[in-house]
Design brief:
Helix content is 61%, strand content 0%.
Length: 163
């Protein structure tokens, strides 16, 4: 890059300075792809999440630190202060998409809970005279009607020969 001042020691943009902006942007892009991939996997395989949360965290840490380590190997004159600065910038840049993704998931979970609480329910009085066994009323609780019996009915055949 071109220096703003003609004095070569003032206002020069070094490769390390350029890296302080470029690297976090690259990490943020990688983290966005990582969050989208995790979102897809959690929608596709919902039972995997609780058992493999450690893998998601480890993947995020590797995603944050690997670009910084590669840049440090490439730049020979990178001192520890700049390296530490790049590590912190990388962690913040990687965390922003993941935090936004989780906040969005939280909003979706709240909406689902509110919809569940607002659903129409039958009162206990509606079940008071129902002689149908509870196991046969499961479809009724899910919103469907039991095809074998109605209110007060039974799936067992009626009549004196079945008494």
């Amino acid at each position: 890059m071109q220096a703003v001042n003609h004095n070569p020691t003032l206002n020069t943009v070094t490769e390390a300075d350029h890296l302080a902006v470029q690297l976090p942007l690259q990490v943020m892009g990688l983290s966005t792809i990582y969050a989208a991939t995790l979102e897809f996997l959690q929608r596709r395989y919902p039972t995997v999440l609780p058992d493999h949360l450690w893998a998601e965290v480890a993947g995020g840490v590797v995603l944050s630190l690997a670009p910084v380590a590669l840049a440090a190997r490439r730049l020979s004159g990178l001192d520890w202060r700049r390296y530490e600065d790049l590590v912190w910038r990388s962690f913040v840049a990687a965390g922003i998409p993941i935090i936004l993704w989780q906040l969005g998931e939280n909003v979706l979970r709240r909406r689902a809970a509110e919809d569940y609480l607002r659903r129409s329910r039958r009162s206990a009085v509606d079940y008071a005279d129902d002689t149908t066994p509870l196991a046969n009323r499961i479809r009724d609780r899910e919103g469907g009607a039991d095809p074998h019996c109605g209110r007060g009915g039974s799936v067992h055949p009626a009549g004196p020969e079945y008494a």
